[in-house]
Amino acid sequence: MKKLINAPDGVLTDALIGFAAAYPDLTVNLEDRYISRGPTAGKVGLVSGGGSGHEPLHGGFVGYGMLDAACPGEIFTSPVPDQLLAATNAVDGGNGVLHIVKNYTGDVLNFQMAAELAGDDGTPVETVLVNDDVAVENSTYTAGRRGTGGTVFVEKIVGAAAERGADLAAAAAVGREVNERSRSFGVALSANVIPATGKPGFELGDTEIELGVGIHGEPGRQRGPITTAREIAGFALDAIHADMPLSGDVMVMVNGLGGTPLIELYVVYAAVAEWLEGHGATITRNLVGNYITSLEMAGCSITVARMTPDLTELWDFPVQTPALRWGR
Amino acid sequence: MKKLINAPDGVLTDALIGFAAAYPDLTVNLEDRYISRGPTAGKVGLVSGGGSGHEPLHGGFVGYGMLDAACPGEIFTSPVPDQLLAATNAVDGGNGVLHIVKNYTGDVLNFQMAAELAGDDGTPVETVLVNDDVAVENSTYTAGRRGTGGTVFVEKIVGAAAERGADLAAAAAVGREVNERSRSFGVALSANVIPATGKPGFELGDTEIELGVGIHGEPGRQRGPITTAREIAGFALDAIHADMPLSGDVMVMVNGLGGTPLIELYVVYAAVAEWLEGHGATITRNLVGNYITSLEMAGCSITVARMTPDLTELWDFPVQTPALRWGR
Amino acid sequence: MDTGDFRAWVRESSRLITEQAGELTELDAAIGDGDHGINLRRGFQAAVEMLDDAEANTPGTVLTTVGRGLISKTGGASGPLYGTAFRQAGKSLGDVTDVDAARLGGALEAAFNGIQQLGAAREGDKTILDALGPAVTAYQVAVEKGGDLAAATRAAAEAADRGRHETGPMLARKGRASYLGERSIGHEDPGATSTALILNALATVAAGEAS
Amino acid sequence: MDTGDFRAWVRESSRLITEQAGELTELDAAIGDGDHGINLRRGFQAAVEMLDDAEANTPGTVLTTVGRGLISKTGGASGPLYGTAFRQAGKSLGDVTDVDAARLGGALEAAFNGIQQLGAAREGDKTILDALGPAVTAYQVAVEKGGDLAAATRAAAEAADRGRHETGPMLARKGRASYLGERSIGHEDPGATSTALILNALATVAAGEAS
Ligand SMILES: Nc1ncnc2c1ncn2[C@@H]1O[C@H](COP(=O)(O)OP(=O)(O)O)[C@@H](O)[C@H]1O
Ligand SMILES: Nc1ncnc2c1ncn2[C@@H]1O[C@H](COP(=O)(O)OP(=O)(O)O)[C@@H](O)[C@H]1O
Ligand SMILES: [Mg+2]
Ligand SMILES: [Mg+2]
Ligand SMILES: [Mg+2]
Ligand SMILES: [Mg+2]
Prior knowledge:
The complex is a heterotetramer, with two copies of chain A and two copies of chain C.
Chain A: H1 11-22, E1 27-29, E2 34-36, E3 45-52, E4 69-75, H2 81-90, E5 97-102, H3 105-120, E6 125-130, H4 150-163, H5 168-180, E7 182-188, E8 208-211, E9 222-225, H6 229-243, E10 248-256, H7 262-278, E11 281-289, E12 299-306, H8 309-316, E13 319-320, E14 325-326
Parallel strand pairs in A: 3-4, 3-5, 5-6, 10-11
Antiparallel strand pairs in A: 1-2, 2-4, 7-8, 7-12, 8-9, 10-12, 13-14
Chain C: H1 3-19, H2 21-31, H3 36-53, H4 59-73, H5 78-92, H6 101-119, H7 129-144, H8 149-166, H9 190-206
């Protein structure tokens, strides 16, 4: 394993120290392990979190118009209730706190415990569960669909709604609406390596790809031989389309998983745009880049959200975070 | 080779089609191969370009406050004079055009031919050569120092100066000043793979790193065993410091080479901040992320610029491009 | 078992888990995300430290302290699950200072129920419950047959070991492994394996073999 | 050599370069950035196409057309260098329709000078010049000794081959290979190698072996 780290078990701490130095406008609480921008009186506080290794998610999305706090767990390990509670208290502006939780057993349980503890302390907490990954079929027989790229859309749009004064129930409702309208599908060309183990999380043959991979390297629907970007994009979009028919105005994210060059993401985006046009959908907004990664995994994920004018307006609302920034 | 492409020799075209679809505010001329935002009357036009594979450089830096046009060559191959000339003409606002050229023989010669052709057509062209890579020592016995991370600083700061009305000579002077004040050093943990060859550009052992690598995988000063991020950052900063003593206000970029997770860049940034503080320099501005990459190479480069209040003001000037965006 | 024995159980659990962390992580790499050993090692080591600092002077407070420590430091799915298990077990002991075989059986059952309620899994889903469930049953059978605490915990540990091995052919329906579907078959569950370690630690302490 | 022969030279150069593109790229991978074969193949194929479309009806216009094509399509360091070489060679031919041995010698010298001026390299720097320089000299020696065009181009091609091999032990001082310093020693220069191919193509055509 070759990594730019000091020691496998110090990665998160060192990264938080670096993050704090790079973004002095944000607060990094090293003790309690959260990144925040302090409470905004009267505003619903937005807290997200999850295992690290998906940067810029979530810390890179803390700032005006998006999250109030992010709680990074150890790499690929959900955060613990204590830190979630500390972050919840730190950003409570008096009108309750919304937890945005990706649907993984560990995240769900730890957030649930934190929400109960916060509730005991008198802070109303609502939870939006993100579960957009269509790779998981028959979700009644599993821990359910995983939360992946849709999280970026949820965090941005709820962030705008909260900034514009939505109350806790309204913010939660917008979050759930975005989640319901978002679907993702990921494809891995290579595996990631967790620093603590130093070994690839899974094995892929020299010409093999994993179709439907999760952001921790969870298995997908099937393995297949490497093929063209066009076919890969088609496979992903077919899977999404079968689950949520795509038409009308859509927002698209072509997201790099961490080890894929940006030029390849442009190639994929071209294929995605071609496919959607061919199916009569109109891309009204897009993101192309690394937004929710899986350490150094090569590959990409495609997320599509069916938009409404209201959601588009919230998407366009100013945002000022390390990783997403416009309009101000 | 596993890549998200359709065919090795169509990568650039496909990527440009994707780029055009993703950024409808910009113009992508597929025929002449340039990305532009059209001429701004009265403003000095800024054109850069170089081999592709370094995305977001340069196309991702076209927009308000930065470049007017970018000319992507084939992967790792300099653009040709025809496209440089076409771009130069496209962004000529009547006050001349500045070429920002990274110092590689191919880039220099092709830009030089284009400048001559433009001059023949009556368009005044000035050239700023970027050569910030301290890995190249004894540069009198080589093609000279390579242009790397400093290019991002030059393009941003000259972009602001041009937007604020600097004339051709003044814009060139600012660009040269930034270049003179900038130094970079890159480190590779793994090699990149050019789609056309399908093979790694160089070979590194399982525990070996290349200290001083170029953005095309050119060799550095030496190879060494993988060590801590702190030592690697120290090696890079020592090399920079030996060439240009670091003190006072500095701007720092910790840049990912394409295959390195963002969390590792934060770890490196922490080490860089620690080193600079220990040497009495103050980081006043920073960038942490993938800005000038080398396909999927794992590793990072560190760029430091000694700042003046004027340069900082130009850095802070609004910019609105796909990859860099603030203040508006 | 007195307070010291419960402290010894926690230490022995931590020791075994630290020793086997690599194996647990490898099991998790096969059907999960490869962090189970790392998670539990971190969690148990923190719990042991908290215990060393805490004035836990009843078996119940030992277990609730450990539960809080596991919740605070483990992360992942296993942190809240094991944390809740220890907390519920601790609560069930009230403030007795010497735990007999029957009370320990109640504590194990409370642990099982805590995990079951929080995680909503059922036996057969290829989780912790597939080691813990058989262990609780075997413990109670042993007690009913007149076995002492040492014999009952040994029976529980052996049942957990068997239960853990029986997760091999199961198809996972909870946790990360469930994403594998059919491909989860043929691998033993990491959580069931760590449960077997914890129950083996209990049997060891009950037999007076560790301190 | 008439206009048709010059067209044949360009086609044969393109054929050889396309055939050896892999080797050229591998040489460049060793001490450069691994694209020399790809660059030249793209450039020469484009030049041949431009030539097919163009009304180049003198040897001079054939060469200047090729030069323009190479500049337009090759990229890299070699594009402007070879492009300039062909353009300068073409210009030196004026509008003669049949090129004799002496005129061809002048054209080769013009090509050398064009590259030398643009790239500012000197012989011994491990570049194109280390094949082209010896070739020009050998050509002129052969002509002075009374050799005909076929003999002189054959001498030039052989000198270029030798020159190319002699770049092996040289330390690169220009182009990308210069960054390698001492490590550039032991590898033959890709540009010198492609020059040898182009001169071999010339000798083949001059001998009437290709069309
Ligand atoms: N709903 C559940 N009920 C009981 N045990 C579960 C449940 N979900 C997961 N587990 C257990 O947790 C173990 C994985 O723990 P761990 O790897 O630490 O967490 P994560 O899956 O978050 O990485 C699984 O092997 C399984 O035994
Ligand atoms: N200044 C120069 N003068 C002459 N030849 C040069 C010079 N610089 C580079 N070359 C030649 O160009 C060759 C490399 O060409 P190519 O790989 O196509 O371009 P690039 O180096 O831009 O990738 C080298 O092998 C060398 O022979
Ligand atoms: Mg985990
Ligand atoms: Mg090149
Ligand atoms: Mg796990
Ligand atoms: Mg080359």
